[in-house]
Amino acid sequence: MSRWNFCVQRSTSANGRSKESERGRWVQRTFRTIAVVVFSLVLAASAWRWSRSESTARRQPGLNVLLITIDTLRADALGAYGNSRASTPSIDRLAAAGVRFVDAHAHNVTTLPSHANILSGTYPTDHGVRDNAGFRFPATVDTLATLLKARGYRTAAFVSAFPLDSRFGLDRGFDVYDDSFVDAQPRPAFLEQERRGSETVALAQRWIDDGRKDQPYFCWLHLYEPHFPYAPPEPFASRFPNDPYLGEVAAADAALAPLVEPITSAGRDGRGTLVVLTADHGESLGEHGETTHGILAYEATLRIPLIVFQPELFKPRVAPEPARHVDLLPTILDALSIHLPDSLAGRSLLPALAGTSDAHARADAALTEPIYFEALSGNLNRGWAPLRGVIRNGMKYIELPIPELYDLQRDPDEQHNLAQSQPQRVEQMQALLDTIRAPDGRADHRTETADARQRLHSLGYMSAAVTLPTRYTASDDPKRLIGLDALLQDVVRLYLAGDLRAAITRCRQLVDRRPTMAVSLLELAHLERESGNLPGAIDALRRAAALTPEDTQTISLLGAYLTQAGRAREAVDLLEPYGRREPPDLQVLTSRALALAAAGRPSEALSALAQARQQDPTNAMLRVESGTVYLMAGDRLRARGEFEAALALNRNVARAHSSLGVITAEDGRTDEAIAHWRQALNADPREVSKLLAFAEFLRRRGHETDAQPYLELFVASASPQQYAREIARARHWLVQRQ
Question: Is the whole-model pTM more than 0.85?
């Protein structure tokens, strides 16, 4: 055979293989398309079966609705779900008298998106809320509150943590949305922005009792126990010395008792109330290397308790049928005989509650609807690969650079990844996932306000803007990077233990291991500043800004730190180009205004603050900043007016009270000044350092009589651990004065 003939034959053979390969790919695509079509038909058949079986389920218009969501509650942390060490008698009694779902799942592993799913009955791919920071629930999407209010219900929500603050959009449709625990200004890192469950329950109970008895109510009650950091009150701290998480679960149960137990015992019109209790997500507690939640999506954080109680409609039972957060809204509406909107992703669980769907569920296990889930915090805040997945018929698929496939019935702890050994099943699950998220675009992640980001930071939710890559590799897979998250949690632990130096050391180690993770640099900047190392904080922020040059929050914070370091002109130059952008960023305007004031340009500073107030006229802190600028310029009258305007917007603005304390003291109105200082300390104990500085200022100026009441207040208010030396000196001076 000639070389030419050989080449032709080889080329022909190669073309044949190429055509054969192309034909194979065409067949695969065809089968995938057929699978999607068949799946759609299956869903339609499933929906028909559900609607057919609904005819035997009972409904009752006008029932009261009590929705209870407990943050970070694993299903297996309850006695009703088999935990013999748990102390949850109230929830256990509710489960025993109601319907307990053993296979219920969340779709997200953070607070805000999970509650958006629950209240709207739609997936995050529909409503667009993907994480706690940077998202707002859209005003165009109906919720359980808007739908029930339109049908004559009085509505109220009582929430216990900042991620559910009304600014994030879930308040629409509620007559009362009580998030009054939120401070007028953020607290320092990892200090609570939450309300104890017992206080929230008392508010909800009072609202229910005080309402009209001839009008049905919808009450949503949210408890934040057992969220990290775990610090259960007594007697639960002593009962669970080695498991504070279970101690917090027990505290949540005890908090619910005054509200739930009268209903389960048929007191206080309990038989006319539909109670739904669930969790927004679970908690990893170290499983798969994750300390808390938010990054991974294994069953420890996705599987949640779900208990439904209404004795006139449902007999007690344990429901094996799969349930999802998006099913709760259609279930509640269906139980009330209210027509279900067409836009819902969920289905009614009424047949499962009534026990009428078992035969169909067993006969048609293949018709089980899929459970979509996602965990995007690692992607949005750290730049890691996005995590999405789907569960169907006990098989769980996690889409990542290193894909995962688990048989949850045989491997509930997800220890044996079947992805490599079952590539065809992976392809089927990937096709299913693609159909569910087909309408989804890239997450619309907005720049979060500095105020909101600092408040979320106080709860341990650390966010930062990142530049997202277009392609991810195995090195970006969150399960390979989860050790970094554990390091970040260790920074939190050390900080809360009072070991700031060790926290800084650990945070520096974290930065060294992943220097491109901006959230670590922002955390380091906070810690360095708190330690008094402003140059170190500024350096960390400059490195973060280099990674995310378009992140106005990082730039604003850098400008503020430069101003505090006495480098106001440098701060003005840094912020100048960002201040010219349209629309102007609120935090840039504020940071630039303070830099201008410190640089001796008060008129320009006040102009920038006026521009900021046009964007946010109810922001009390902007009034405080204007008052501060007037004080720096020596205009005490206008300064006082601004501080009083701030308090008219929010009576709990600590800086407004302390500033008025200084002004009224200088005017000789000591009683009024002391009253303002007391209110400042109640709103924010950190103001005690300003109180001491003011008292020392008066004393050094020779006004010892004037200084005495302020030093007495300092001694009575300051933390002995933090101010032991200063308290001792003040006491010595006060004794000498006597």
Answer: no
